[in-house]
Design goal:
Distance between the termini: 44 Å
Order of helices and strands: HHHHHHHHEHEEEHEEEEEHHEEHEEHHHH
Helix content: 55-70%
Shape: elongated
Strand content: 5-15%
Low-confidence stretches: none
Structural class: alpha+beta
Strand order of the largest sheet: 3-2-4-1-5
Oligomer: single chain
C-alpha cells in the first residue's frame, strides 16, 4: 500500500487518469436500477486522494474541464433556453428558481442550527443540486476545499433523490401521455380538382395548408422536380411532405385523392437520395439561403437530426451530422454528394476556432465584476461566464464565416470528458479532508443534504402539479433542470416518454445554474464580510 501511495503521490497524471478509468467502471455498476454514472469519478478520486495524500492535481486542469462541460451544455441548449424566456417558460423558470432558493435557505438554516462550517454548507447545497459550476463558485468564494467535502457527501442523494421522487409521484398521479407524434409524413396525390385550367404549380403551392411542401411532380408518365412554372392538369400527381398526417389528408381532400406508389416506384429520371451533412460552411445557414451546386436542380424534402425527422422550412438551419433526403436528377447525385460532404467522420469534428474564441469570451465575461447593492461585488466566474456566452452563441449558431454549433457526438464527448476531468481533480484534491469530515460529521451532513434536495424537488413537483397545473412531462423536465444532473433527466424521459422533459430541462438548467453560482458568492460576501 505504501508503494501505491508513493507512486500515486509522485505521478499526478497517472492518478488523474486512474480516477477517470476506475470511475467510469464503477459508474456502470447498477444496484436496483440505480448507478452513479459519471459521478462515480468523484468518489474514486476521493478514495485515491485518501490513500495517497501527496496526490494533488495542480494547475488549471479541473477548471479547463469545467469550462468544456458548461460550454458544451450552452451550445447545445442555447435556442431552447432563449425560447423558454417567454410565455410558459417564464412560469417554469420562476418555479424552479423559487425551489432552488428554498433549498439554499434550508441548507443555510440547518447549517447554522447545527454549527456546520459555511464551506461545508455551500458544498452541501452544490452537491444536493449536483452542480459542478456551483461547487467551483463555492471553492473560489471559500478559498479552501471545504465545499468539496460537502459536495461529495450530498452528491449521491442529489442523483438518487429526484429519481425516487419521480418514481413515487408518477405512481401516485398515474399520468397518461399521447403517443410521440411523427414529425414527417409523405403522401402521393393524384390531382382531380384544380382552381382553373392550366394552373401553375407556384400558384397552387400558395394555397396549400401551412408547412406542406411539394417535393416532386408526375406528368406524362415522368417524374419532375417541382418547378413553380409547371402547368398542372387533372391526372397529374404530386408528392407532398408535411409535419402532420392531417395536413397530408387536408391537401389530398383539396386536390383529389391519395394514390400511394404512383411516383415513388419510378426512379428513371429523378431519385430520392440521403446525404450526410459534413461541411461546416453549410451549417448555420437557413435552407432558404443554402447554396447549391451550379446547374444542379434538387429539392430537399426531409431532414433527420439525431433521432428526429423534420420537414424542411426556409428558416431551418442545417447542422453537421444531419441526414438530408433530397429529390435529385440521377446524373446530379455525385455532384450533390460532394457538395454536402457525405462523410460520417465529420460527427467527431468541430471548429476549434469557434471553440477557442467562444471559451475566451466566456472566461472574459466571467471576470466582469457585478456590484450587488449593500452586499459587494460578485462575478459570473468560471461557472457562469462560459455558460452564458455559449447559450448566446448556441442561439446565434453562426456569425459570418464562423459556425458556433458542433455535432452532437462531438458535443457529448467534449462535455463528458470535461466534467470527468473536473470531478477527478476535485475528488483527488479533497480525499484526506473528506475522510476526516465524514468520520466526525458524516451522518449530519448527509441528512442536511437530503433535506435540501427534497425541499427543492418537492416544491417543483407539488406546486407545479397541484397549484400551477403544469403538464406532467413538462413538470419532470423543470424538476430535472432545477436539480441538474443529466441522469435525472434520463429517468424523467422514461417516466414521461415525450420530448417535453428535454425541452423543460433545456429551459431551466442554464438559468438555475447561473442563479446558484451567483447565490453562493453572495452568501460568502455576507457571511465572510466580503
Amino acid at each position: 500500500m505504501d508503494f501505491i501511495s508513493d507512486l500515486l503521490g509522485t505521478q499526478p497524471i497517472l492518478t488523474l487518469f486512474l480516477a477517470v478509468g476506475l470511475g467510469y467502471a464503477v459508474g456502470q455498476i447498477t444496484v436496483l436500477g440505480f448507478s452513479l454514472g459519471i459521478g462515480a469519478v468523484l468518489f474514486v478520486g476521493l478514495f485515491l486522494g485518501a490513500i495517497a495524500p501527496k496526490a494533488t492535481i495542480s494547475g488549471p486542469i479541473g477548471l479547463i474541464g469545467l469550462i468544456m462541460f458548461l460550454y458544451g451544455i450552452g451550445i447545445l441548449y442555447g435556442r431552447q433556453f432563449f425560447e423558454g424566456l417567454k410565455g410558459a417558460g417564464l412560469v417554469y423558470n420562476l418555479l424552479a428558481l423559487v425551489a432552488v432558493a428554498a433549498g439554499l435557505a434550508v441548507a443555510l438554516g440547518l447549517g447554522a442550527a447545527f454549527d456546520v462550517k459555511l464551506g461545508h454548507t455551500l458544498g452541501l447545497f452544490a452537491g444536493s443540486m449536483t452542480s459542478t459550476a456551483t461547487l467551483q463558485a463555492a471553492l473560489d468564494t471559500m478559498k479552501n476545499s471545504e465545499p468539496s467535502i460537502g459536495y461529495s457527501v450530498a452528491y449521491p442523494f442529489g442523483v438518487i433523490g429526484p429519481i425516487l421522487c419521480f418514481y413515487f409521484m408518477t405512481r401516485k398521479v398515474q399520468p397518461t401521455f399521447p403517443p410521440k407524434p411523427a414529425r414527417f409524413h409523405m403522401g402521393e396525390i393524384t390531382i382531380e380538382n384544380l382552381p382553373d385550367a392550366g394552373a401553375k404549380l407556384g400558384k397552387l403551392m400558395a394555397t396549400l395548408p401551412a408547412r406542406v411542401q411539394v417535393s416532386s411532380v408526375r406528368q406524362e408518365h415522368r417524374n419532375r422536380l417541382p418547378d413553380p412554372a409547371i402547368e398542372l392538369r387533372r391526372g397529374d400527381a404530386l408528392m407532398v411532405a408535411a409535419d402532420t398526417a392531417a395536413a397530408i389528408q387536408e391537401t389530398a381532400a383539396m386536390l383529389g385523392r391519395l394514390d400511394p406508389g404512383r411516383i415513388a416506384k419510378d426512379r428513371a429520371d429523378v431519385n430520392y437520395q440521403r446525404f450526410f451533412v459534413s461541411k461546416q460552411n453549410l451549417c448555420g445557414v437557413p435552407l432558404g439561403d443554402l447554396p447549391m451546386p451550379a446547374g444542379v436542380a434538387a429539392q430537399i424534402i426531409h431532414v433527420r437530426r439525431y433521432d428526429v425527422d423534420l420537414v424542411p422550412s426556409p428558416d431551418l438551419m442545417l447542422e453537421v451530422g444531419d441526414r438530408i433526403g433530397v429529390i435529385v436528377a440521377n446524373e446530379d447525385v455525385a455532384k450533390l454528394r460532394a457538395h454536402f460532404g457525405d462523410t460520417v467522420k465529420s460527427t467527431g469534428d468541430f471548429s476549434y476556432v469557434s471553440l477557442g474564441f467562444g471559451m475566451v469570451l466566456g472566461v472574459l465575461l466571467g471576470l466582469i465584476p457585478i456590484p450587488i447593492p449593500g452586499v459587494g461585488t460578485v462575478t459570473l466566474g468560471i461557472g457562469g461566464g462560459p455558460l452564458i456566452v455559449a447559450l448566446i452563441l448556441g442561439r446565434l449558431r453562426r456569425t459570418g464565416p464562423i459556425s458556433w454549433v458542433m455535432p452532437l457526438p462531438a458535443n457529448i464527448v467534449l462535455r463528458n470528458f470535461g466534467l470527468t476531468l473536473f470531478l477527478a481533480t476535485v475528488g483527488i484534491n479533497s480525499g484526506q479532508a473528506f475522510v476526516r469530515t465524514v468520520a466526525s460529521q458524516g451522518p449530519l451532513l448527509l441528512i442536511i443534504g437530503a433535506l435540501v434536495l427534497l425541499t427543492t424537488v418537492a416544491i417543483v413537483l407539488l406546486v407545479g402539479y397541484y397549484v400551477l397545473k403544469l403538464p406532467y412531462d413538462d413538470l419532470l423536465g423543470v424538476a430535472s433542470g432545477a436539480t441538474g444532473n443529466p441522469a435525472i433527466l434520463v429517468y424523467a424521459t422514461r417516466m414521461a416518454p415525450t420530448e417535453r422533459p428535454d425541452i423543460g430541462y433545456a429551459m431551466i438548467f442554464p438559468s438555475a445554474t447561473i442563479v446558484k453560482v451567483v447565490a453562493v458568492q453572495i452568501i460568502g460576501l455576507i457571511f465572510l464580510g466580503g
